[in-house]
Amino acid sequence: MIILIKSILALLFFLCLLNMPYGYYELVRVIAFASFGYFAFKANQVEKSEQVFIYIALALLFQPFFKIALGRELWNIVDVVVGVGLITSLFIKKVNR
């Protein structure tokens, strides 16, 4: 389940690089907030405190309640870095199994 959510979330972040309607970005923020909250919860269950911290920080960055104005260029960089990080975490997890 986590693999599917991370893959979809990474795709959504990469699609943010395109010129999408504003509502799409709002939807991505809501989905990212919920997903990173879920990831933090799951990481806490297996006592991975560094991952909990990262996921909570990402949930706060993408939270939909108070807009964080970084500008389009900086948000594009954030989207790519987080998307690549999500994809990378899928491969790292497979290696550690």
List keywords for this structure.
97 residues; mainly alpha; 4 helices
Question: What's the number of domains?
Answer: 1
CA-based gyration radius: 13 Å
Helix content: over 70%
Task: For the record, give the distance between the C-alpha atoms at the N and C termini, rounded to a whole number.
Answer: 16 Å
Report the major sheet: none
Low-confidence regions: none
The helix-strand sequence is: HHHH
* Percent of residues in beta strands: under 5%
- Treating each run of at least 4 consecutive H or I residues as one helix, how many helices? 4
Class by alpha and beta content: mainly alpha
Tell the overall outline.
Answer: globular
Q: Give the rounded overall mean pLDDT.
A: 91
List how many beta strands DSSP finds.
0
Written overview of the protein:
With about 100 residues, the chain is mainly alpha-helical. The protein has one domain (about 1-95). About 80% of the residues lie in helices and about 0% in strands. It is built from four helices and no strands. It has helices at about 1-15, 20-45, 50-60, 70-95. Helix 1 (about 1-15) runs antiparallel to helix 2 and helix 1 packs antiparallel against helix 4. It is globular, with a radius of gyration of 13 Å. The relative contact order is 0.17.
Quick overview of this protein structure:
The protein is mainly alpha-helical and 97 residues long.
List the helices and strands and how they pair.
Blueprint: H1 2-15, H2 22-45, H3 49-62, H4 72-96
